[in-house]
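Hypothesis: this fold can be encoded by more than one sequence.
Test: take the structure tokens below, design a sequence, compare later.
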């Protein structure tokens, strides 16, 4: 299943002009406030009629302005997850979930109630009402209700924005399961790099109403022009080796050891680790006597200057790439150049729990 979007729309003081494809998995619309993310998702949902465009979900044409086709929202087979759960307060969790069934076509092959309950860990909540649920639990019920409508597409408009960090950590693994185990494309709006790194299979970076970049998260998040200098980061794929008594987890990023605060994943599990470019220090010689545990050696692949005083230095470390954001002055003082051996230094505690994702679609 694939979503194809091409649309243009004019507001006073703002023009949106975007085109992209969202394959199976999670496609994240990523960018700062005012970049056009919610406008795009509302056009897909049918809450906004674009001036010009064509939107196709698999084989179903949602919008084609040239052909004067604009399918009503209730016929689009879309599940919409809002920032708040928007559950019916007088119904139990079970009844809220089953409400989604009213919107599923009779011949639709969707998820069963039992499967959704198991997928989202809702079995012990079925007889409760929304007033007795946490924010994270409400969002899980909202996800389940959307799934039971047998959608061809799921839209999620910053679904974690209203949650505190504890609740975000609680619900992110469920979105990872949704990505890995449900054959429905998900269009997910976010301005948080950590969410993008954990969840995305495809990233569409928006800036000022235009598509700045499209591609895998590691590629797009490393593009300063697309995400901005402070949002630039790398994604390393690593395997959990062991958990140690001092609270650290040992990983292997290819042949390179990596030490992070304890990760809740069994040895042998593959994880995705986001490393912010501004948290990486570079050295020409192997550093000694440092408190930082992670020293990753590689070859400089490229050095990209920015508009300000910084440069982005990207290293090839085995089959993976790691970027460091340093000042132009430091790069010149160190005499950095493509092809040189260089050593990246990373503090273990610089990587937060929300920067580590699990799942099969990595």
């Amino acid at each position: 299943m694939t979503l194809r979007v091409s649309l243009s729309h004019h507001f006073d003081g703002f023009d949106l002009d975007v085109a992209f494809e969202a394959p199976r998995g999670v496609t994240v619309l990523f960018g700062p406030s005012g970049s056009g993310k919610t406008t795009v998702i509302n056009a897909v949902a049918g809450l906004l009629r674009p001036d010009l465009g064509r939107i196709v979900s698999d084989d179903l044409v949602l919008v084609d302005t040239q052909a004067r086709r604009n399918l009503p929202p209730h016929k689009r087979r879309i599940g919409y997850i809002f920032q708040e759960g928007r559950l019916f307060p007088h119904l139990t969790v079970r009844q809220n979930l089953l409400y989604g069934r009213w919107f599923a076509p009779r011949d639709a092959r969707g998820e069963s109630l039992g499967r959704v309950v198991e997928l989202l860990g809702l079995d012990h909540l079925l007889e409760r009402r929304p007033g007795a649920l946490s924010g994270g639990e409400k969002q899980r019920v909202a996800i389940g209700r959307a799934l039971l409508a047998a959608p061809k597409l799921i839209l999620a408009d910053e679904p974690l924005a209203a949650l505190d960090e504890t609740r975000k950590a609680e619900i992110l693994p469920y979105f990872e399961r949704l990505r890995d185990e449900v054959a429905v494309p998900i269009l997910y709006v976010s301005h948080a790099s950590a969410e993008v790194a954990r969840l995305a299979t495809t990233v569409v970076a928006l800036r000022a109403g235009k598509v700045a970049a499209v591609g895998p998260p590691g590629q797009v998040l490393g593009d300063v022009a697309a995400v901005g200098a402070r949002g630039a980061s790398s994604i390393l794929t690593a395997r959990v080796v062991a958990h140690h008594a001092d609270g650290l987890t040992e990983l292997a990023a290819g042949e390179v050891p990596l030490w992070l605060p304890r990760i809740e994943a069994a040895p042998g599990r593959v994880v995705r680790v986001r490393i912010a470019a501004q948290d990486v220090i570079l050295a020409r010689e192997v550093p000694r006597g440092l408190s930082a545990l992670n020293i990753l050696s590689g070859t400089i692949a490229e050095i990209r200057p920015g508009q300000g005083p910084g440069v982005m230095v990207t290293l090839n470390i085995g089959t993976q790439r790691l970027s460091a954001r340093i000042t132009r002055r430091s790069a010149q003082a160190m005499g950095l150049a493509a092809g040189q051996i260089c050593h990246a230094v990373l503090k273990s505690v610089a990587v937060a729990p929300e920067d580590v994702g699990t799942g099969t679609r990595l």
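The longest helix spans residues 165-181. The longest strand covers residues 294-305.
Hypothesis status: open.
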